[in-house]
Design a protein that fits this description.
Residues 186-282 form the 3-hydroxyacyl-CoA dehydrogenase C-terminal domain. NAD(+) binds at residues 9-14, 32, 92, 97, 119, 143, 274. It holds the Pfam family 3HCDH. By secondary structure, this protein is of the alpha/beta class. The chain has 2 domains: 4-182, NAD(P)-binding Rossmann-like Domain (Rossmann fold, 3-Layer(aba) Sandwich); 191-275, N-(1-d-carboxylethyl)-l-norvaline Dehydrogenase, domain 2 (Orthogonal Bundle). 46% of the residues lie in helices and 14% in strands. The protein is built from 11 helices and 8 strands. The protein has helices at 12-23, 35-55, 64-70, 94-107, 123-128, 161-173, 189-205, 211-221, 228-235, 237-251, 260-267; strands spanning 4-8, 27-31, 71-74, 85-88, 113-116, 136-140, 150-155, 177-182. Helix 6 links the parallel strand 7 and strand 8 (177-182). Helix 1 packs across helix 2 (35-55), helix 7 (189-205) packs across helix 9 and helix 7 packs across helix 10. The chain is globular. Residues 8-14, 31-33, 37, 89-92, 96, 100, 117-119, 140-141, 143, 235-236, 239, 243, 274 line the site of nicotinamide-adenine-dinucleotide.
Length: 284
């Protein structure tokens, strides 16, 4: 059984991971670069844990002190040295991810597994810069983490069978199962879903329909739970844009060319739910 989990990055996914871990009684070390991000994250984690039993009665009611006793926040990466499993959630940008892995490889025990929570970046590429490529595995959690029963697990070129088994054990502790796929940029879910979110942005930019019409077509006609633009807002338009850049760079295929409207919104700070405005406006 895993006891103490290191979560690197306290943004959309890091917060979601910490909520899920705390709700399952696991000790969580949450790392970010600035104290203000950790304070915002802690407030959101406390609030989400408070509401979780109302959304799903399998979750326990937890007092704030109980949450705080499991959740440790820090700006020092060094503090994850005694964690038995790491899930990294820093932005979808190689220049940010690479130094994090180089440092984690120095800090963490040889046994520690690195779970890469990336949207698109190759797991083989991440494993290749560490001295433990067999213990690096893609863990593509879905948002919001505590509401999703399955995740996409990606086997890098060197990921060992034992690491896959241990990843499945970790997921079992969170009541999740794994859909295991091979490694190629964007894997399955995002190689497909980013085309659809990007094209939806092109449709809006071309003035064919407004965001609500686009999403309504997918929900009311195709029976999807969420439309492509609501999904993009939930993920974060900056993350969608970075992922499209990764896909375009890898495949050199113009089908992944990021819609200029998406770029403009990100440059204007309209990143979706997390910034309060994207294709829709949200109460903060
Ligand atoms: N948003 C989603 O729905 C989603 C789903 C699955 C996977 N992902 C992937 O998860 C990763 C994180 O995405 P996100 O949406 O949470 O991004 P985000 O921008 O919301 O959060 C990233 C966090 O990482 C922090 N950070 C930056 N550099 C750091 C460092 N060196 N050390 C520690 N923390 C650092 C930032 O301050 C920020 O709080 C990305 O690779 C993304 O592609 C995102």
């Amino acid at each position: 059984m895993f006891q103490r989990i290191g979560i690197i990055g306290a943004g959309t996914m890091g917060i979601g991971m910490a909520v899920d871990l705390v709700l399952h009684g696991l000790e969580t070390v949450l790392v970010d670069v600035e104290e203000k991000h950790l304070q915002r994250a802690t407030a959101e984690i406390l609030q989400t844990v408070r509401f979780a039993p109302m959304l799903n009665n399998k979750y326990p009611r937890m007092a704030e002190d109980d949450v705080r006793s499991l959740l440790h926040t820090t700006t020092q990466l060094q503090d994850v040295e005694d964690c038995d499993y790491i899930v990294e959630n820093v932005p979808e940008n190689w220049s940010i991810k690479e130094p994090v892995y180089l440092r984690l490889d120095e800090i963490c025990s040889e046994e520690t597994i690195f779970g890469v929570n990336t949207s698109c970046i190759s797991i083989t590429k991440v494993g290749g810069i560490t001295n433990r490529p067999d213990r690096v595995i893609g863990m593509h959690f879905m948002n919001p983490v505590y509401m999703k029963p399955s995740i996409e697990v990606i086997r890098g070129y060197f990921t060992s069978d034992e690491t896959v088994t241990r990843a499945e054990s970790f997921l079992a502790q969170l009541d999740k199962d794994a859909i295991i796929v091979k490694d190629q940029t964007g894997f399955v879910s995002n190689r497909i879903s980013h085309l659809y979110m990007n094209e939806a942005a092109w449709v809006v930019m071309d003035g064919v329909a407004n965001p609500k019409q686009v999403d309504d077509l997918f929900k009311k006609c195709f029976g999807h739970k969420m439309g492509p633009l609501e999904t993009a807002d939930l993920i974060g338009l900056d993350t969608v844009m970075h992922s499209l850049h990764v896909l375009f760079e890898e495949y050199q295929d113009t089908k992944f060319r990021c819609c200029p409207l998406l770029k403009k919104m990100v440059h204007a700070g309209e990143c979706g739910r997390k910034s309060g405005k994207g294709f829709y406006t949200y109460a903060k």
